[in-house]
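Whiteboard transcription, Tuesday session. T.W. wrote the C-alpha cells on the left side:
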C-alpha cells in the first residue's frame, strides 16, 4: 500500500464466487454505459473509509475472515435504482458481518455508510429512467434465484472513477454469522 496516495478513501466489498462474478460482470458489461463502466461487478459494503484507517482496516478484515465461514447468500430478483438496475442480494449473515464492522468503525463512517444496507450488484447506472425501466422489464424473467456463498472481503482505494485493489481476505473460519442486524 505504500505507493497509494495518502488521501484516497477505502472501499470495502463482499467478494463473489467466480461463477456469480462472471455472470454478473457479463450483465454489467452488456448494460452499463461503456463510457462510465470503469469497474467490474462488485458488492459494496462500505463506500468510504477514512485514509487514516490504512493500517487498521486490513487487520480488522483479517480478523473477520479468520473468524467467519463464507456467508450464505442468494440472488433475489432485480432492484430498481431509479436511473439504473441492480441484482438484489439477500444475505443476513453478510449484513451481520457488515454491522459488526460498522459498529467497530462507527465514528469513522460517512452518513452514507451509517444507514441501512441493501446488498446488490449494479448492472446499469446513471441512465434515463425510461432506459432503466426497459432493462428491468427485459431482465425480469431471466434473473434466477441463485444460492451462493460470499468468498471474502475486499479492500480497495478510490482513485477517481477507478478503484485500486489493496487486498482480499478469504473467509476461512468456522463460525456462521446468523444474526440479522
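and on the right, the sequence the group agreed on:
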Amino acid at each position: 500500500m505504500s505507493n497509494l496516495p495518502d488521501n484516497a478513501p477505502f472501499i470495502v466489498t463482499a467478494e463473489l464466487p467466480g461463477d456469480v462474478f462472471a455472470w454478473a460482470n457479463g450483465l454489467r458489461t452488456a448494460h452499463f454505459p461503456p463510457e462510465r463502466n470503469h469497474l467490474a461487478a462488485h458488492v459494496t459494503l462500505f463506500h468510504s473509509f477514512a485514509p487514516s484507517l490504512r493500517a487498521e482496516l486490513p487487520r480488522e478484515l483479517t480478523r473477520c475472515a479468520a473468524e467467519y465461514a463464507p456467508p450464505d447468500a442468494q440472488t433475489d430478483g432485480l432492484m430498481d435504482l431509479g436511473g439504473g438496475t441492480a441484482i438484489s442480494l439477500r444475505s443476513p449473515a453478510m449484513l451481520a458481518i457488515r454491522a459488526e464492522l460498522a459498529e467497530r468503525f462507527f465514528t469513522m463512517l460517512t452518513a452514507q455508510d451509517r444507514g441501512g444496507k441493501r446488498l446488490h450488484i449494479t448492472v446499469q447506472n446513471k441512465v434515463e429512467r425510461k432506459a432503466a425501466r426497459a432493462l428491468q422489464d427485459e431482465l425480469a424473467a431471466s434473473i434466477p434465484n441463485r444460492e451462493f456463498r460470499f468468498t471474502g472481503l475486499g479492500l480497495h482505494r478510490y482513485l477517481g472513477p477507478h478503484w485500486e485493489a489493496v487486498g482480499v481476505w478469504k473467509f476461512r473460519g468456522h463460525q456462521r454469522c446468523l444474526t440479522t442486524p
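Someone added at the bottom: The chain has one domain: 10-170.
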